[in-house]
Amino acid sequence: MRRSNRSVILTSIYRNGPLSRYELGHETSLSAASVSNLVGELLAEGLVEEAGSVESDGGRPRVLLRVAPKFAYVVGAEVGETRVRVEVFDLSMKVLATTVYPIDTPTPAPELAVKYVLQGLESVINAAEVPKDRVLGMGVAVAGVVEGPADAVVDAQTLGWDSVPLGAMLAAGTDIPIQVDNGANTLGQAEMWFGAGRGATDAVVALVGSGVGAALVTGGTSYRGTRSSAGEWGHTTIMYGGRRCRCGSDGCLEAYVGAEGVLDRYRLAGGVVDPGDDEESAFIALLDDVDSSGIAAKVVQDTIGYLAAGFADLVNLFNPERIVLGGWSGLLLGERYLPQIREAVGKRALRQPYAQVSLELCELGRDAVALGAATLPVLHLLRNGGLPHHQAAS
Questions:
Q1: Potential cystine with 88: which of 41, 114, 119, 124 (Cβ 3.0-4.6 Å)?
Q2: Is the backbone of residue 154 left (phi > 0), alpha (psi -120 to 50) or beta?
Q3: Nearest CA-CA partner of 165 in 176, 177, 183, 149
Q4: Contact 378, 91 (CB under 8 A)
Q5: What is the per-residue pLDDT across 300-309, written as a single tens digit (0 to 9) for each?
Q6: Which helix (H) or strand (E) holds 94?
Q7: Is the pLDDT of residue 167 over 80?
Q8: Which residues partner with 19 through β-bridges?
């Protein structure tokens, strides 16, 4: 009970703070005495700190409380198709150091990904001068299906990974606790906590980059399916007998709206892609050529249509109140064409559920997957009420 009540208090402060003790009582339905005692514990431990005050109605000013940013640190890593990105954050999720390792093969060996993640972990901790014993843990986001969380076995057909024990491979190289999850899920958690998903209880956060995925949130809880593979939206069939997808199937949404698929369609249509450009630079060049190239304009308009069809499927299937478009190529497209995407979704979705949904852009930027990965150890801290592991288990 003590851990549960601490968790409720700590989560409220973290997600909605700064808050006064009075506001915490209303948010948590705990008694004033319980709130006072628990807050006293958290203040004494240094996990919570005072953050100014606000005037009250006729009484003394109310002291505001927040989670102490420097109490501990977390690391987030993104294993993407083109790079590994590792960042270290304080508990306010302010990034303190970042390192990026480019990947020049579409199917990197798991050992290479592990090497870069562990190198990055040491690099950012040293660069930020963070004491290693105050790092709560590292979250790692990957493409594909993640089963775990104890050993975090990853199946990622697009990377050529088959039952890779990624969690165990990473844990063998560090004493820092490791958690692994799908990249769309970590992006979704970040957006639901800090970004465009805040306040929604039924939402879809779409990740559109080289690959395509989605995080599904229903009733305020992440929906993962029987064995955590829910949300593989990029591998829903949008065209029977269509383009070959990296997963080996035909006609997947990813083959039409993922950056790799878009650029391939552009080349096949006669468009010119500079062989020296990386994928992101090539995608930006394609968008920049829309006004001067009929081929580029047609490819982009078709991409908007395919993406809108995929969104319409989500609207009709899940009736979300909000869809958030994220991922680096999704944002590049959405920043220029969001009104057209919304209009195209409206033409394809059923009228009533479309009227109930809003389509927004990710607010946390193109690199929010690593930020979301770093929330995994934060979530563990909140669920345990900030208690050390041995106390939390008792």
A1: 124
A2: beta
A3: 149
A4: yes
A5: 999 999 999 9
A6: none
A7: yes
A8: 65
